[in-house]
Backbone:
């Protein structure tokens, strides 16, 4: 794992100013505790130039697909800005020369050097002096890694954690699993119809982990206690949120690597632009917006049965029971009514797009997050009749407004001919053709069209491919990125493809087996170590995420990986 | 790896949202039925090989989203289909009325000579029936199509209708088919050779005949 850290460090410095490019996901989610603490955002000049660069980004003529930005995983929130600054300085010093001389694009370098970041090592306890660590040939990497480790060790509470981490996580994981298991098997035996749902291939095979209850609440009973780092982070969030005028830039910075569960609802309201930064105005705003929403309901909802809205309402009505059909929460009549109202009001207020299938999915993260404010555990099985009318109304109105804000940024995905999606799928194709020509050519050779599998990735923001809790975590980041749901999402999709490049390249007979969205989804469900997407949740599991995995690396080298591997001498 | 099929066809499922297109497909390819379902977004597909008349036919079945907004996407798949299922729900008069619209879309976007078949799904929902069987038959006759009432839930006429459409497509391509029969054994050997060398030459060689 130390390897992963140093590799990432080596790569992240690219050229500090270009727009985001390909690998942030691998680079940030596959991380380990050893990674430098630091903000996910680039230096401020970078921000200023990002817009400009993003315009040029798609031009093929660009020699590099874009420079790699410092990307920090959820494990590594900004702690001490000075530390970060020094660290970046140091890295750029060390790397400036070698990077310039590199022929290959910085992306390929990055990809190569982080290709095993997702591998889960077999050993839970591999120490820093293990031989595999020493196989790194790069002095730079060693120096960087040492620095990282030193920094990290300062920030970490060693004594209790080192041993307990390994035992805690699997244990808590088991607890979660078993409770969910029980739920699932109860459902299975309750109704014969439910049972085959698990096998159904066109439905995502949900991992047996509750949605949000455990996303990061380490202090819930049975879960491991919060680390000092996590406490510090939470404290930082609380500080930001309670200051007279919340510094939104800072909040975005902090949120990029994941928002602690405790403060997620209010953070999301702020990030989406629903709540004002000024604390004094918040209460009033909330009150006003909630009233406004219920004003809409009063004014328009009865029109759902009128001729001109019939199609819209019918479609929503058909789709609501088909929204997360495996999660009991969404099968409750009260919840379904809430969804119908939210979607109908949004649809008739946005006639250019109206309601389009898939938009129903986009309400769920908001609903679940705002609901989690009132529910300690097991949100997916929570009976909403336990909540007061007022609380439910607040959740409904807030979900509506936040979803509206989200959709404002991607409305062209849903207007006639869905130009937003078409453009994004094209952009994805273009991007992949440059950052991974092999995969791109493979698709072309076997006549696999990007539209075939990527249409839904864009239309549903990967929600059909990921479990809800991962989507929620992903949206922490999307909401802290400018145009996260449109622009940044594209890179996440590209990162997914490249993550599965090996499986894709091994597939030669697409005609026989097909590479449908379902195939892709199954592959994701089977192979993605989902906890990788939620680094804060299970630190011990994460420890293995970026772990040096000699076997995987060996295999990777055996495959030739485009013929060159500069990592190991 | 020996070739597992002789010909490859593309079939397409179209019809209003919620008539059960995905359920028909799941029943046919996986013999599964699920009452609660997620909606299809854009286009999805499944594959299955069936043997008709001694020929191993690999069918790729494209399942489309029924909502109108998706039609820009779904229409792109019409022109590549050799056979099309037009599906309505017997418990929805409206979905039956819309068959006319679906047929005109097919006329506009699908290749000439595409084979069509009319399906009235959810035949098990007798109490909710809004469209009589004879109405279905009549409509099918008007358009010169075969007609089946099916139920993905009770597995009624699923295999029959898929096999029938495949037969129709095979018949429509009888000429190419004759050529295939005479060449079949040679090509099989050739395909195996290529794979031994580990150099598949691309999709053209991996399926022996694909009329698209």
Residues:
């Amino acid at each position: 794992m130390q390897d992963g850290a140093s590799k990432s460090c080596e790569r992240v410095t690219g050229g500090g100013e270009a727009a985001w490019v390909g690998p942030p996901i691998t680079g940030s989610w596959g991380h380990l505790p050893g990674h430098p603490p630091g903000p996910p955002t680039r230096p401020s000049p970078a921000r200023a130039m990002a817009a400009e660069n993003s315009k040029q980004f798609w031009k093929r003529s660009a020699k590099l697909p874009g420079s790699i930005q410092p990307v920090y995983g959820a494990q590594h929130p900004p702690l001490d800005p000075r530390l970060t600054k020094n660290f970046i300085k140091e890295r750029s010093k060390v790397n400036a020369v070698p990077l310039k001389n590199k022929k290959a694009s910085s992306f390929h370098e990055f990809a190569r050097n982080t290709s095993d970041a997702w591998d889960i090592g077999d050993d839970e306890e591999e120490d820093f002096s293990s031989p595999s660590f020493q196989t790194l040939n790069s002095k730079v990497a060693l120096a960087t890694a040492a620095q990282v480790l030193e920094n990290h060790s300062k920030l970490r509470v060693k004594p209790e954690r080192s041993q307990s981490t390994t035992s805690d996580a699997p244990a808590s994981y088991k607890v979660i699993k078993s409770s969910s298991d029980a739920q699932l098997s109860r459902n299975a035996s309750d109704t014969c119809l439910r049972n085959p749902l698990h096998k159904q291939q066109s439905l995502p095979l949900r991992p047996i982990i509750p949605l949000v209850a455990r996303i990061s609440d380490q202090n819930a009973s049975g879960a491991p206690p919060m680390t000092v780092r996590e406490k510090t982070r939470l404290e930082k969030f609380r500080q930001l949120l309670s200051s007279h005028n919340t510094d939104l830039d800072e909040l975005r910075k902090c949120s990029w690597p994941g928002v602690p569960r405790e403060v997620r609802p209010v953070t999301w309201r702020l990030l989406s632009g629903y709540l004002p930064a000024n604390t004094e105005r918040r209460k009033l705003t909330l009150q006003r917006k909630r009233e406004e929403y219920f004003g809409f309901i009063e004014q328009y909802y009865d029109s759902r049965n009128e001729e001109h809205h019939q199609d819209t309402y019918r479609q929503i009505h058909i789709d609501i029971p088909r929204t997360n059909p495996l999660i009991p929460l969404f099968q409750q009549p009260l919840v379904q009514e809430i969804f119908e109202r939210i979607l109908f009001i949004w649809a008739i207020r946005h006639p250019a797009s109206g309601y389009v299938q898939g938009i129903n999915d986009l309400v769920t993260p908001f609903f679940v997050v705002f609901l989690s404010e009132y529910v300690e555990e097991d949100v997916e099985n929570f009976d909403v009749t336990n909540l007061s009318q007022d609380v439910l109304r607040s959740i409904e109105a807030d979900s509506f407004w936040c979803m509206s804000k989200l959709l404002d940024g991607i409305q062209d995905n849903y207007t006639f001919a869905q130009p937003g999606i078409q453009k994004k799928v094209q952009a994805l194709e273009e991007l992949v053709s440059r950052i991974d020509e092999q995969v791109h050519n493979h698709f072309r050779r076997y006549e696999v069209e990007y539209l075939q599998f990527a249409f839904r990735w864009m239309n549903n923001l990967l929600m059909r491919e990921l479990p809800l809790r991962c989507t929620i975590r992903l949206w922490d980041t999307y909401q802290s990125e400018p145009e996260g749901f449109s622009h940044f999402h594209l890179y996440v999709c590209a990162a997914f493809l490249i993550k599965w490049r090996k499986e894709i390249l091994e597939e030669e007979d697409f005609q026989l087996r097909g590479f449908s969205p379902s195939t892709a989804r199954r592959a994701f469900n089977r192979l993605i170590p989902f906890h990788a997407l939620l680094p804060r949740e299970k630190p011990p599991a994460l420890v293995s995420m970026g772990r040096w995995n000699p076997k995987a690396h060996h295999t990777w080298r055996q495959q030739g990986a485009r013929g060159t591997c500069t990592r190991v001498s | 790896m020996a070739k597992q099929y002789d010909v490859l066809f593309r079939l397409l499922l179209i019809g209003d949202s919620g008539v059960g297109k995905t359920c028909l497909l799941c029943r046919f390819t996986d013999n599964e039925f699920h009452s609660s379902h997620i909606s299809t977004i854009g286009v999805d597909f499944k594959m299955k090989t069936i043997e008709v008349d001694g020929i191993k036919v690999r069918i790729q079945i494209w399942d489309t989203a029924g909502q109108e907004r998706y039609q820009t996407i779904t229409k792109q798949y019409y022109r590549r289909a050799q056979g099309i299922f037009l599906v309505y729900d017997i418990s929805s008069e409206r979905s039956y009325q819309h068959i006319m619209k679906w047929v005109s879309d097919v006329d506009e976007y699908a290749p000439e000579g595409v084979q069509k078949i009319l399906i009235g799904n959810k035949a098990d929902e007798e109490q909710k029936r809004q469209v009589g069987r004879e109405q279905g038959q009549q409509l099918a006759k008007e358009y010169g199509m075969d007609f089946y009432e099916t139920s993905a839930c009770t597995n009624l006429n699923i295999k029959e209708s898929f096999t029938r459409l495949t037969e129709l497509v095979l018949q429509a391509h009888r000429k190419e088919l004759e050529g295939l029969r005479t060449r079949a054994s040679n090509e099989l050997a050739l395909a195996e050779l290529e794979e031994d060398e580990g150099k598949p030459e691309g999709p053209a060689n991996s399926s022996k005949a694909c009329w698209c």
User: Anything to note?
Assistant: Chain B touches chain A at residues 4-5, 8, 17-18, 22, 26, 30, 32-47, 58, 60, 65, 67, 69-70, 72-73, 76, 200, 202-203, 206-207, 210 (CB under 8 Å). The beta strands of chain B are 7-15, 43-52, 55-64, 83-89, 115-121, 146-149, 209-210. Residues 7-173 of chain B form a domain with the Rossmann fold fold (CATH 3.40.50.300).
